[in-house]
Amino acid sequence: MKISVVIPAHNEEKNIAATIQALLVQDYPDYEIIVVNNASTDKTLEVASRFPVKVVTELRKGLLWARERGRVEAVGEIIANIDADCLPDTDWLSSGFSHFKNEKIVAVSGPYDYYDAEPYFRKSSLLFQKNVYPFFNNLFQTIIFKRGATLIGGNNFIRASILQKAGGYDTSITFYGEDTDTAKRVSDHGRVIFSRNVLMKTSARRFKAEGKFKLMTKYWYYFFKHIFS
């Protein structure tokens, strides 16, 4: 199957090149890279255009506007989502794709590894995600709950046909809870997997800017808000 990797990028001139370079050396044989220049006012468009990738511009500012534009532009059977500050290992695409051999699987996600965080936070966060997120993912897909699933926004794979059936991305959501909303809607069509092995290195810059406690509180609040809405 062809995979379309979508990268939303708003003012990411300092990060986008490294992310693209990491994607260009993936060991998966059939994929495209789509950079969505999302209303940038810096040199994001110029930097991204230096590489053999598809670059499109979405003037409506917002993560979900960018994801949706990328989804519409994509030709792959699987949409892979990644952020502009991520550094995937060379086997990221092949690791994610391996789960789709089961036709009942509609989406796959995995943990973030905050590569530039302080050692304790990096290790504890990764340990938490690898053990707690799969539990919640399975719990909410049981016959008791049937309330959704767990996806990491910048580290997930979704069947394009299922995403289309689910209505694409909800562009009314600005940021927080967008992955939970998407997970909830696609899980109506099949199984969502949270794999400890589908790992994504990403920056901890948002935690550094907003503070760990404040940001984690926001993430969990919007997770439960969308799960039970």
Keywords:
about 230 residues, alpha/beta, Spore Coat Polysaccharide Biosynthesis Protein SpsA, Chain A, 7-stranded mixed β-sheet, 3-stranded mixed β-sheet, 10 strands, about 40% helix, globular
Q: Could you tell me the radius of gyration in angstroms?
A: 16 Å
Terminal-residue CA separation: 34 Å
Which parts are unreliable, with pLDDT below 50 for 5 consecutive residues or more?
none
Corresponding CATH superfamily: Spore Coat Polysaccharide Biosynthesis Protein SpsA, Chain A
Helix content: 25-40%
Distinct helical segment count: 9
State the shape: globular
Q: What is the spatial order of strands in the main beta sheet?
A: 3-2-1-4-8-6-9
Major β-sheet annotation? 7 strands, mixed
Q: What is the H-and-E element order? A: EHEHEHEEHEEHEHHEEHH
Structural class: alpha/beta
CATH topology: Spore Coat Polysaccharide Biosynthesis Protein SpsA, Chain A
CATH architecture: Alpha-Beta Complex
Name the average pLDDT.
95
Number of domains: 1
Question: Could you walk me through the main structural features you see in this protein, from its secondary elements to its overall organization?
Answer:
- By secondary structure, the protein is an alpha/beta fold.
- The protein has one domain: Alpha-Beta Complex (Spore Coat Polysaccharide Biosynthesis Protein SpsA, Chain A), CATH 3.90.550.
- It is 39% helix and 21% strand.
- It has helices at 16-24, 44-48, 63-73, 92-97, 119-139, 160-165, 178-186, 205-210, 212-227, and strands at residues 3-9, 31-38, 54-58, 78-82, 86-87, 105-109, 112-114, 155-159, 191-194, 200-202.
- The strands form two sheets. The protein has a seven-stranded mixed beta sheet, with helices on both faces. Strands 5-10-7 form a three-stranded mixed beta sheet.
- Helix 1 (16-24) links the parallel strand 1 (3-9) and strand 2.
- The model has no long low-confidence stretch (mean pLDDT 95).
